[in-house]
Specification:
The structure is a homodimer. By secondary structure, the first copy, chain A, is of the alpha/beta class. The first copy, chain A, is built from 13 helices and 12 strands. Chains A and B meet through helix 4, helix 5, strand 2, helix 6 and helix 11 of A and helix 4, helix 5, strand 2, helix 6 and helix 11 of B. The structure holds a DNA duplex.
DNA sequence: TTGAAAGCGCTAACAC
DNA sequence: GTGTTAGCGCTTTCAA
C-alpha cells in the first residue's frame, strides 16, 4: 500500500501538500498537482479507508444482516443491496444470523464497532418468535441508523421496506378464484414469521370476500424439510383441492412435482402459485405461476433508505415505510 | 461509541492506563483494573476496530468475492465462509462480481484499500473465458494474500480449494453405469467455465473406461434460462437416453420435471443425477439423486487456508491445493 | 503556494 | 503502578 507519506518523500514535498493536491485544492500550484497526481497514478495510490474512517467518522460502509442466505429470496435481496451500495459508493459488511437471535446479537455487536455508517437487517426467525428485538433497538441509543426489510416489525420505529404480504396473497387468491377455482389450498412453512400470518390473512380474506367456504383442513403447515415430501404427498392424497397457494419459496415447486407424480391425472386441474423469482420458477415444468416480490428492488430501496437516513442529521427523523409492489407472473 | 479517552476522563486516569487495564497488563493495580473494567462494562465500551486496524495493520477482516449469489452453490459456500470466519474471530467484507470482470476488478480494488487481511475469491465467468486474471494476480505484488475456491486456475499460484470436478462426474457416470444405464446424456450450462470442461471430461472418460459408446448428440449445452425449457424439452423428445447427468445445479431438476410432463411413461426408466444440496434436491419429487459438493465445507476450508496464509510470514510460501471430497446421495 | 501541527482511537516503548 | 509520547494514514486549520 502506497501512503501519502511515501509520495511526499519521493516528491520532496509535505504530506499535506500531497493530500491537497490529490483533492484538487485550489491553493496548490498546477505544476505540483500534476507531479503529485502522476506519481500517485504510477504507484497506484489509494487512500486508506481505515484512516479516512477514523478521521471523519464516515466509513462509507453499510452493514447487512441476512437471516438465511440459502433462501433464494434473501440471496436476491443481497444482490440488490450490493448493486445499489456499490453504485452509491458504499461497501457492505455482510453478516448472517442463520435465524438465531444469539448470532444476530453477535452480528450487530460486530457492526457497531465503529466500522459502518448504518445497517440493513431482516430479523432472525427466533427473534421474531420470542419477540426479542431489544438488541436491534439498542442500536438507536448508540445513534446507529438501521433499516429493516421484509420481516418488518411494528414495534420498532425505523425505516422499513417490505412488500404488502397480505395484499400479495390476497391478490393471488383472487387470481385463482377468477380462474374458477373454488377449493384453494394454502401451504406454508413460514408460520413462525409475522409475514406468514399476514399472508395467511390475505388468503382467508380473499376467500371471505369472494364468498368461498373456508376449510381448515385445506391449510397445511410444515417446517421440517426432511419430512416435507411425505407430509405434502399425504396432504395431496387426502384433501381435494383445485388450486394451491404457497406462502413460501419452495412449497409450490414441490407440490407441482408431487402432484404430477402421484396424481398425474389431476395435474392439469390443479393450479399452483407461490413466491418465487424468474429463475426458481423455471425449476419446475411447466414453470410455476408466481408472485414476483422484486427482491432485488427491495434491497436497492433499503440501501437508498439507509443512505438517506445517514445523511439526515435531524434530531426528529421522520421514518419511512416503503412497500415494494408485487405482481403475479403467469407461466 | 464510548472511547478510551472518555473512560480515562471519567476515571481521572490516563488513556494508556485504561488501555492496559482492559488488556489485563500486569503493571496495573488490581483496584484500578477493577474500576476501569466496571465502567467499560457499564458504558458498553468496544474498541474501535478501525483504530486497531490502522495501528496494527491487522484488521481481522476477510474479503470475499462471489461470482453469483443467486447460485445456491455459492450461497452455501458463503454460508460456510461466514460461519468459520466468525468462529475464528474474523469479519467478512462481501463483494459480488456478478460474473463480470470489471465488477470483479472494482471489488478487488475496494478490498485492497487497507481494510482486509486477505481475501477469498472464485473468479467471474468472464475472467475465465477471457483468461484475464491479471487483476487478481496483481494482489500478489502488493503482498495481499488470497485463496481461490471452486473455479481454481492453474496459472495462478496461490492456495486453492475445490472439488475434483472430473472425478465427481466420473464417479456419478459410473454410478449410473452400474445401474445398467447405457445411454447416458450429459447436460450443462457451464460450458464457459473450466470446471465445466473438467466435468465433461469426467463423463467422457467414464464412458470410455466402461466401453460405452460416446454419442455427441447426447451432450446438450444451454445457457439462456429463458429458452432452457424449450431446449431441454426438444432434447428429451428427440434423443433416446436412459439416464442424465447434469453438470450444473439446475438442469437435472428441470429435466426430471420435463420428462415427467412430456414423456411420463419414460420417467421411471430415466435416472437423473446432478449437482445439488440437501435442500435443492428436494425441490423435485421424487428427490433428485445428487452429487454433494459440501459447499459449506469448501467455504470453511477457504477460511482456514487464508488465515493460515495470513499468519505465515515466510517469504517462500508453500501453497496448498485442497480437494474437498464429494459423494453421491441417492434419493 | 506550501508546510507544520493537531487530532481521529488505539497501543507500546519508555519515563517517572 | 501510572503517565507521557510517538505514531499508524489521513484531513484540516493555521502559519509562513
Amino acid at each position: 500500500m502506497t501512503t501519502l507519506k511515501q509520495l511526499a518523500k519521493l516528491l520532496n514535498v509535505s504530506v499535506s501538500t500531497v493530500s491537497k493536491a490529490l483533492s484538487d485544492a485550489d491553493d496548490i500550484g498546477e505544476e505540483t498537482k500534476k507531479r503529485v497526481k502522476e506519481l500517485a497514478e504510477t504507484l497506484n495510490y489509494k487512500p486508506n479507508k481505515l484512516a479516512l474512517g477514523l478521521k471523519s467518522n464516515v466509513t462509507n460502509t453499510l452493514g447487512v444482516v441476512i437471516p438465511d442466505i440459502l433462501n433464494p429470496f434473501f440471496a436476491e435481496v443481497l444482490y440488490g443491496i450490493q448493486k445499489q451500495a456499490n453504485k452509491r459508493g458504499y461497501d457492505t459488511l455482510v453478516c448472517l444470523s442463520n435465524e438465531s437471535t444469539q448470532t444476530e446479537i453477535n452480528a450487530i455487536q460486530l457492526l457497531k464497532q465503529g466500522r459502518i455508517d448504518g445497517f440493513i437487517i431482516s430479523p432472525a426467525a427466533e427473534s421474531q418468535q420470542t419477540n426479542n428485538f431489544s438488541h436491534i433497538e439498542a442500536a438507536k441509543n448508540e445513534r446507529i441508523k438501521f433499516v429493516m426489510f421484509d420481516r418488518v416489525d411494528n414495534q420498532i420505529e425505523t425505516d422499513k421496506v417490505s412488500i404488502d404480504d397480505q395484499l400479495a396473497v390476497y391478490n393471488a387468491t383472487e387470481w385463482l378464484i377468477k380462474k374458477g377455482k373454488t377449493r384453494i389450498a394454502y401451504v406454508s412453512n413460514i408460520e413462525n414469521l409475522n409475514i406468514g400470518n399476514d399472508r395467511k390473512n390475505g388468503y382467508r380474506e380473499a376467500l371471505k370476500n369472494n364468498n368461498l367456504a373456508f376449510h381448515k383442513n385445506l391449510e397445511l403447515e410444515w417446517s421440517d424439510i426432511a419430512t416435507s415430501h411425505q407430509k405434502l404427498a399425504q396432504f395431496i392424497k387426502e384433501e381435494k383441492f383445485d388450486a394451491v397457494i404457497s406462502a413460501d419459496n419452495s412449497s409450490a415447486i414441490m407440490i407441482q412435482s408431487i402432484v404430477k407424480t402421484i396424481l398425474p391425472e389431476l395435474f392439469n386441474q390443479i393450479t399452483c402459485i407461490g413466491f418465487a423469482n424468474a429463475k426458481t420458477a423455471m425449476l419446475t415444468y411447466p414453470p410455476l405461476n408466481y408472485i414476483e416480490q422484486n427482491a432485488a428492488q427491495m434491497g436497492e430501496k433499503a440501501v437508498d433508505l439507509i443512505i438517506e437516513r445517514i445523511k439526515d442529521k435531524s434530531d426528529n427523523p421522520v421514518y419511512k415505510q416503503v412497500k415494494i409492489p408485487t405482481h403475479i407472473v403467469e407461466a
